[in-house]
Fold Sulfate transport system permease protein CysT.
Amino acid sequence: MLKPVHALRVAWPRPGDPLPGFRFALITTVFWIGLIVALPLTALIIRPWQEGTGAMVAAMQDSRMFAALRISFTTAFLAALLDVPLGIILAWSLVRAHLPGRRVVDALIDLPFAIPTAVTGITLATLYGPQGWLGAPLKYLGISVAYTATGIVVALMFVGLPFIVRSVEPVLREFPPELEEAAGLLGARPWQILTRVALPTLMPAIVSGFGLAFARGIGEYGSVIFIAGNQPFRSEIAPLLIVVRLQEFDYAGATSIAFVLLVASSVCLAGVAWLRRRVARGLIAGADS
């Protein structure tokens, strides 16, 4: 039996709705984002100013805070930078090379996402400690990793490497091998194929992976505190200093440090996003020309 015309009209989306249920999905998404993300960030921004400007002025004059911020951002940047070539090599091996046990290697890359960060920190501290499997030989050579800023970089490299690999791997899978073969037939050497053919295409993904690893490194806590030594002005990170201030019941100081860390992190991530857009636009412009 045929349905009336007005019943058929009800089944279609309302004018202005791109998809059925779009308005409900949009409202739900905005509500949860506001409740989970926007509201806590707003509270963090407002809280340091509730007791006047004294807490913020004291925080801006705290040399220990600036030392912790410098260590956090420097080690996160170095770790993400060192992860880039390692991540590219791993992604290239997973996509291009037929490695034995490839599935095992693929699962191990995602392991830092799954294991608790405290387990990572204890394992690295045991491994690189003065009596550890790697720490003892390195100590014999005069190299100290555990309880130094170098140990922080090692821990952040461990947790940040999957971001580089998983950002580059999908783009590399879509990259046609015929381009590499054509470049080789035209006389290009392997390093020229890598630098002039592959890397320009992979650059936006590399910048994105670098930004994710850098952002993770700035706020990393559990995997760092066990290997860092936590010495003020030497190996103390900003998240740990926030915890120290909370243990001292200095809530104004803790939120002030968190506010400064939030602003600094937002500026750095905005810079990484701007760089990624510039690289992508340059790549598109080069392809059009």
In short: Residues 27 and 33 are 10 Å apart (CA to CA).
